[in-house]
Amino acid sequence: MTVIESPRTPARPAPRRGVNVEKWGWIYMRASGVILLVLIFGHLFANLMVGEGVKAIDFGFVAGKWASPFWQWWDVLMLWLALIHGANGMRTLINDYTNPGTVQKVLKLALVASVAVLLVLGTLVVFTFDPCPAGSPADLLPSFCPAA
Amino acid sequence: MSTTTTRTPTAPEKPATEKPGGTLYRGREGMWSWVLHRITGVAIFFFLLVHILDTSLVRVSPEAYNAVIAAYQTPIMGLGEVALVGAIVFHAYNGIRVILVDFWSWATRNQKVLFYVVIGLWVLTMLAFTPRHLINVFSH
Hints:
The complex is a heterodimer of chains A (148) and B (140). Chain A has a single domain (25-140), classed as Fumarate reductase/succinate dehydrogenase, transmembrane subunit (3 helical TM bundles of succinate and fumarate reductases, Up-down Bundle). Helix content of chain A is 63%, strand content 0%. Chain A contains four helices and no strands. Chain A is elongated, with a radius of gyration of 21 Å. Chain B has one domain (29-139): Up-down Bundle (3 helical TM bundles of succinate and fumarate reductases), CATH 1.20.1300. Chain B contains five helices and no strands. Chain B has helices spanning 29-56, 62-72, 75-103, 105-109, 111-139. The model of chain B is unreliable at 1-5 (pLDDT under 50). The A-B interface holds A 30, 33-34, 36-37, 40-41, 44, 48-49, 52-55, 57-60, 62-63, 79, 82-83, 86-87, 89-90, 93, 114, 118, 121-122, 124-125, 128-130, 133, 136-137, 140-141 and B 38, 41-42, 44-45, 48-49, 52-53, 55-56, 58-59, 61-63, 65-66, 69, 72-73, 78, 81, 85, 88, 92, 95-96, 98-99, 102, 129, 132-133, 136-137, 140.
């Protein structure tokens, strides 16, 4: 008969001293989850429920939002919290569905690499964004641009 | 119940040979909570990867961003957004349920009730979102 271990049995015991990474991962999922509920529900309400919803979204809409540091920081905070929350969740799945070995290492490496690239990309996009790029058609730009 | 609490627990007379018995969570509310949390989590993660890339096109040109966002405004994607929001709302409410079950003994005892509370709140939220979103998708 196969003995099924208790679900709470750790794969390896927690370190006796120093930082317990798995414990902080557990805490992070809960803390970020609560903040993400507020950030993402606010994001969905502002973008999909107000006015004409998804039909109103275009370059001018995004430029209008990111003209305010409030939405810049809202979106960047959402980016970091959500991507790390999601990556830690995917790490759980990799641990659950693969055996320790090369495949597991490659999957985790791919996960960390893609998340790192997207964190840098997303943060740069929000903070280096130019709402009035030179040479663009005036009708695509937000109304506060000199060219519009 | 009160007459049996003082007795020493003994094995049932007939060992459960066909049914797994009452000690496994398999097939009950807790399992479906876990399964749905996992499936919605993976779906949201892969959408997030795509969503960061499509939003990054604002840094390329207004034309590039408007072209990709137009895809989000088609009827098919409009229905997909209902599925996406449904996944996010379930994951959010069920995540709160997980936190409550972890930290509050009442919630641990009543985790099955809380699963139906999650489903109920999910239905209410989707009733508020879906008609308004679909009107935007199909009429403007």
